Amino acid sequence: MSAPDSPAETMSRAIAHIIDDDVAVRDALQWLLHSRGVESRCWVAAEEFLAAAGQGLFGCCLLDVRMPGMSGIELFDRLRALGCPIPVIFLTGHGDVPMAVKALKDGAFDFIEKPYDDNALVDKVLAAFAHDDARAAKATAASHLRGRLALLTQRESEVMQQILAGKLNKVIADELQIAMRTVEVHRSHIFEKMQVRSAVELSQLLASLGGDPPA
Amino acid sequence: MEPGTPLSADRFSRWRWLWLLPRLAFALFVGGVGLLLWMSDRTDREERRATLISDVLWLEQNLRFHLARNEELLGRISRTHTGDPVAFEAFARSLFGHESGLRQLLWLDPEGMVRQAYPGTMDPSLLGDTGETVPSRQSQRLARSIGKPVYSRGYPYYTDDWQFEVHVPVSHGGNVIGIAVGIYRIRELLNDSVPWWLAERYRISVVTDGGKVLGTRSKVESTVVDEGYQVPFDPPGWDLALHAVPYHAPRPAASLLLSAALLVLASVVLWSLWILRRHVLRRQFVEEELRREHAFRKAMEDSLDTGMRARNLGGEITYVNPAFCRMVGWSAEELVGQKPPMPYWADDYLDQTLSIHDRVLAGEGPGEGFELKFKRRSGEIIDVLIHETPLMNSSGTHFGWMGSMVDITDRKRAEDQARQQHERLQSTARLVAVGEMASSIAHELNQPLAAISSYCTGAANVLRNRHGDKEVVSALDKAVEQSRRAAQVIRRIYSLTRPSDSQFEQVPLGRHIDAALVLIEPEIRKRGVQVRFSPHEQVVIDGDPVLIEQLLLNLLRNALDSMWDTPAENRIIGIDLSVSDGYAALEISDRGCGIDPAVAEKVFDPLFSTKPEGMGMGLAICRSVVENHRGRLTFSTNPEGGTICQLLIPLPKP
After folding, report:
1. Nearest to A34 among B451, B458, B627 (CB)
2. Which residue in A has a C-alpha nearest to residue B629's C-alpha?
């Protein structure tokens, strides 16, 4: 498969990354996913994939547990260490319950034993895509919000904190020792920049970001 | 034996004190006997002296008596005798005949002229005392004047004799008519008047005042030892004395014999005392030696850890040592005299014990010793190793059996433990190997089966999308079904051989390396391999201790096995344990044959081995275990020759 042309294109195209040392398994999986219209890409070794993982990856990983060199589990740990949030589905020829439990606990998307129901596997891949998509959308929204917050001036941020605390313009003016008129100007600028119409809307928007908004 | 010396010296000094008694007794005996002899000798001498004195006194008396009688006889001379020489001679002869001592008779007229003489020879040399003529004029005058017999001084006679005279005045009718002079020769006087028995015993002599000997009566020339005894011989007067000296009388034979016997007896006593003393000393020495030897043996016996037990031919206990008593818990007094069954025989093994006991007594006991179970008094069962040997006395007669007994309970327990541990290890290794084999087979089969299934499903999907031949789709579905069935079979077999689910816990790696080294220590020693283990940090991982142990054992054994052909001084295994980047890093390096690049890719494959007897599961197991712990196992070439095996296992997240 060819490399993504641009970041925007990558975002729109989810790819299933197949990492397995067995060429037959790789090929069969790609054929299976292709039969359902899912785009996939094969990697011969974990190291190879890890080298490419620096770029933004979307979709999911189908990881064989046992591989020469770096094992699937180790690759998973490395990806998480790198902060790569892509969903990982483990494929194993010999199910090991404790290993599976641990992998799932650590955030693997699923742990599937060979042989598997192939179409169910494709469904799992699609679910992982959806999950990754939702995560990506959320991440995009958050980054937009952060972009908007970044537009606020220092004074506007201070005023916004006061507004979020539910204080009236008069109280804010007193506390910041500025004219009430100035507070009103700030407030309208803030609403405009954050693309909201009320203080309630602003509060909800910032809550979706989780945690405290940057000061 | 040193400690005994002061004691024995002490004992010897006490004995020495005892030895004074016989010596003192002997000295007293000898002294007493000597005193007795001396006293008897003195008494004897005093007695002899008393006899001597009385004899001398008697002799003097006797002589005086003779002289007095001669005076009287001389006084009886008359004119009839004096007038005629023949008559005078007759008279003289009558006088000489009675052993009177007289040797010459003279008749003087009142004027002192010699009228008659018998024997008549007038020797001119016969001179009277002090140069006067014979007879002594002085004595003659004195006799005539006092009218009583007077003795003259002695004077020498030519025959080497001395003589003296007695002048007896003879009166008739109031007038002195003449004087009869009798001449005595002293030697002849002594010869005549001293009886033979006296002469036997003494040398009798007449001596003057000045000590000059005038005449001696002696029988033999014999030495005299005594000064003798002297009495004045007064009638002749003129300072003469009688001197008697006893001859050296031979001591009585009985006394001599007695003395000699006493001497001999004393020496016999002395000799026997000496012999006795020597004997006692030797005996004492031997006793001391014996005592020391006994004390030594006793100390040896008491400090022995081996239990000793002697039995007579009937099986009755005749002796037990303290170690035996300590082992079984019964005292020696309780055990000695016991007959089988003994109180310390374990109840559950009575028959076996009795049969061995009977065999030993019959002389058919196992020579190399045998193991038995005994019971302590507390009921505790102990394992003992017993050796029985026949007891022989000094003449070689077999009179019993001596058994030595060693408590081997602890040893047996340790051996059991070691065996159990070894068995556990073996079975664990077998289980892990079998599980790994099954896992490998499952993996190897599942891979193609999965591919088959995926291909078929994909093909079916494509056909369905294109509304293709339904029959083909159905056949493809069936193929998928069959591949799944095959996988089910594999899974079932795998689940049968799979080891029970491992339990993860905290595993201190350093301590497990130590434990693994201990387990293969015998082999390490046998092959003379040096192990250098330098744990840099205390590393604790999450893992299954049993699997980790298997992993370490396999890796260490591989390192050991790779160095068969390495020179002995180069057989080094380096173990390095550290922490890097969230991983526990363990490096095991050897100087062995290394890994042939041609087989490097296959080393993890199950059933692949470079060792002649290898099963080919070792590294496959290692890989599974490492995978199981989310770790990584790689090999690289040791720059110093051989292989470095690097193991990375993630540390637990804090």
Report:
1. B458
2. A99
Fold classified for B67-246: Beta-Lactamase (3.30.450)
- Give me the residue spans of the domains in chain B: 67-246, 306-407, 413-497, 505-650
Tokens of A71: 């094992």
Q: A126 and chain B: CB distance < 8 Å anywhere?
A: no
| Binary contact (A114, B487; C-beta < 8 A) | yes
3-state secondary structure of B195: coil
The reported pTM is: 0.44
Q: Which chain A residue's Cα is nearest to B450?
A: A115
Closest Cβ opposite residue A35 in set B449, B461, B623: B461
End-to-end CA separation in angstroms for chain A: 45
Pull the structure tokens for residue A200.
């309630």
Question: Are residues A71 and B630, on separate chains, in Cβ contact within 8 Å?
Answer: yes
Mean pLDDT by 10 residues, chain B (654 residues): 48 68 84 87 86 86 84 82 81 77 79 75 45 64 82 75 82 80 81 79 79 71 64 71 76 79 86 89 92 91 85 87 88 87 85 85 80 87 88 86 87 86 79 78 84 91 87 89 86 70 79 86 85 81 85 88 85 89 89 83 76 76 82 87 90 79
Contact between chains at A114 and B446 (C-beta distance less than 8 A)? yes
Q: Least CA distance to A27: which residue of chain B?
A: B451
Q: How far apart are CA B94 and CA A67, in angstroms?
A: 184
Task: Give ∠ CA B229-B232-B236 in degrees, rounded to 5.
Answer: 140
Whole-complex ipTM: 0.72
Count each helix (H run) and each strand (E run) in chain A, helices first: 10, 5
A108 plus A187 within the same structural domain: no
The domain that holds A106 is classified in CATH as 3.40.50.2300
Written out in words, the top-level CATH class of the domain with range B306-407 is: alpha beta
| Contacts across the A-B interface (CB distance below 8 Å) | 105
